[in-house]
Specification:
7 helices, mainly alpha, 3-stranded antiparallel β-sheet
C-alpha cells in the first residue's frame, strides 16, 4: 500500500503507488470527471461565449455538494451559480485530468502545480464518495467498530485511504 506523499525537490512531492492503487485512483478520477461534465450554457451566443450557465441548484446530492449554494438567499445564490458554475466545472475537470495524466505505478514525482491539482481532485473524489456513502464526522469511529464482512466496510476503508492520501499530500506541500 502507498506510503502517501512526501516532500520532493523544488516544491514538488513524491509518491509510490502499486498497480491496484493506480487502477482505483484512475477509476475514481474518471468517475468524477464524468460527473462534472461541462456545464450547460444558454442559447444566447454571448452567454455561451462568457460561460454563463444555469442558475438552478443541481438535484443530484453529489453535484449539489460539489457546487454548493454560495448564499442562503435563493436569488443571490442563483445569480452567483449562473456566472461561476461553468468555470468551477472546468477547474474540477482540469484537476481530474491532471491527476489522470500524472498517475502511474511506481515512483512518481509531481510538480507543485500538479500536486495542487491532485489535492483538489482528491478533495472532489472524497466529496463524491462521502456524499454517496452519507459519511459523517464519526466515520473513523464507525469504521473501527465495523466488522470486515459489513458491505460498507471496503468502501469506507477506501474513503479512509483517500483521506490519508489527502492528509499526507497537505503535509508534503506545507
Amino acid at each position: 500500500m502507498s506510503s502517501g506523499f512526501s516532500r520532493g525537490r523544488e516544491g514538488g512531492v513524491v509518491t509510490n503507488f502499486d498497480d491496484p492503487e493506480v487502477s482505483i485512483l484512475k477509476s475514481l478520477a474518471a468517475h468524477t470527471l464524468d460527473l462534472v461534465e461541462p456545464g450547460e450554457t444558454g442559447d444566447d451566443p454571448l452567454e455561451r461565449a462568457l460561460g454563463i450557465g444555469p442558475s438552478e441548484q443541481p438535484d443530484d446530492p453529489v453535484l449539489a455538494r460539489l457546487f454548493p449554494s454560495a448564499y442562503e438567499d435563493a436569488e443571490q445564490s442563483a445569480d452567483f451559480r449562473r456566472y461561476t458554475e461553468t468555470t468551477l466545472r472546468e477547474g474540477k475537470r482540469a484537476d481530474a485530468r491532471t491527476m489522470l495524466d500524472s498517475l502511474r505505478s511506481g515512483h512518481a514525482e509531481l510538480t507543485q502545480e500538479q500536486a495542487q491539482a491532485w489535492l483538489r481532485a482528491l478533495n472532489d473524489i472524497r466529496l463524491v464518495l462521502g456524499t454517496r456513502l452519507e459519511v459523517t464526522e464519526e466515520v473513523h469511529d464507525e469504521l473501527a467498530g465495523m466488522r470486515e464482512d459489513d458491505p460498507r466496510y471496503p468502501v469506507l476503508v477506501l474513503y479512509d485511504w483517500l483521506t490519508y492520501l489527502q492528509e499526507t499530500l497537505v503535509h508534503a506541500l506545507w
